[in-house]
Specification:
2 strands; mainly alpha; about 350 residues; about 0% strand
Length: about 350
């Protein structure tokens, strides 16, 4: 950057202010949407009561219980999970220099689905209970979650091990992820072939990602992991800007490209594993959000990383809110809405980019 007489050029200030303004507007919309999301659902709560309850002046004990026990943890889970999946997708796309990099396309989500299917069908955690009010619930969700998490880590370990053998090139990592995703999908289909009706229903239910499964304990674990990942990627923003210019350029600037690629993949995969293990498979957030933010504020990771976090939180919170309203009082799994919303937006961005 050229400094004229020791002053920052006005054009650069305008350039950065616009990006900060976009991110700030996103945060403001997110806060407003959080209040609306808490207010709507099977029981409509006035906005004034929502604000009063959140500020410790609950006007109604019933609203107080609904907000603190159901609505607020679900809305915060959507924000945390959306942020985590989006930052994982941005990190994978940056270190791989590949726009298709995401937890879903690299097979990590498929590995989680296999782990859940293994737990339900082989270990017998799929005995179901069903009632008119509560559709279906796993009788032992903790063992199911542990195995989903375990197979997420196995998939990540395989991708990283293969990449180390082949000098950690982006192409090798993406191809390894596609192969591993196909392998775990085939494994899940194999288990489902021998499952009875109840076990099959349990596996299918688990694969529908739903932020309503998270309580305060799960929310705290996810928040800690996602916050640590955000701090890591923010600290690496300049390295990723250098990698964007090419491996040789980055190495010339002193960046250890191979190490950054492996550690970045490990961090992104760990975040994904924790979220998928608690909430199930939620696709498209990690793939779509980085692209949407790049269209708005560019590839500079100083702004791309926080912008992607805000975009992911907004997308998943809006999807969860819509999922509670479309068929109220019934609630759709949020993963269905993210797929319905994400795929058309992604196709629009691709077509618009080509036309320009």
């Amino acid at each position: 950057m050229h400094f004229a007489d020791g002053k920052i050029p006005e054009g650069y200030i305008t350039y950065t202010r616009r990006k900060v303004a976009v991110i700030g507007a996103g945060v403001l919309v997110l806060l407003l949407l959080l209040v609306v999301s808490i207010a709507v659902g099977a029981v409509d709560i006035p906005i004034r009561s929502v604000v009063g309850t959140l500020t410790g002046m609950a006007p109604d004990p019933l609203y107080d219980r609904i907000i603190w026990n159901i609505r607020l943890p679900q809305a915060l889970a959507a924000i945390v999970a959306g942020t985590g999946l989006a930052i994982a997708g941005a990190g994978m796309q940056s270190v791989l220099r590949n726009p298709l990099g995401s937890p879903f396309t690299l097979g990590i989500s498929h590995a989680a689905a296999f782990g859940a299917a293994f737990s339900v069908i082989i270990l017998g955690t799929g005995t179901m209970r069903s009632s008119g009010a509560d559709a279906i619930a796993l009788n032992n969700p903790y063992i199911t979650t542990i195995f989903a998490f375990l197979f997420c880590l196995i998939a990540t370990g395989i991708i990283i091990a293969i990449s180390r053998i082949r000098a950690s090139s982006p192409e090798v990592m993406v191809l390894a992820g596609v192969a591993i995703g196909s392998l775990f999908t085939a494994g899940t289909m194999f288990l489902q072939y021998f499952a009875d009706d109840v076990q099959l229903a349990a596996v299918v239910f688990w694969t529908f990602g739903d932020v309503g499964r998270a309580g305060w304990n799960e929310l705290i674990v996810m928040a800690v992991v996602v916050t640590a990942a955000i701090i890591y990627f923010v600290l690496k923003r300049w390295d990723y800007n250098a990698i964007d210019a090419g491996d040789e350029t980055a190495k010339g600037l002193g960046v250890n490209v191979g190490r950054e690629r492996i550690v970045g993949m490990l961090v992104a995969s760990f975040v994904t594993a924790v979220i998928v293990a608690f909430l199930g498979i939620i696709g498209f957030v990690g793939l779509v959000c980085p692209h949407m933010v790049r269209r708005l504020i560019g590839d500079d990771h100083r702004y791309l990383i926080p912008g992607t976090c805000v975009c992911g939180a907004l997308l998943l919170l809006a999807s969860d809110t819509a999922a509670r309203l479309i068929l109220a009082p019934h609630i759709l799994p949020v993963a269905i809405l993210t797929a319905f919303m994400g795929a058309p937006i992604f196709l629009y961005l691709i077509i618009r980019g080509r036309s320009q």
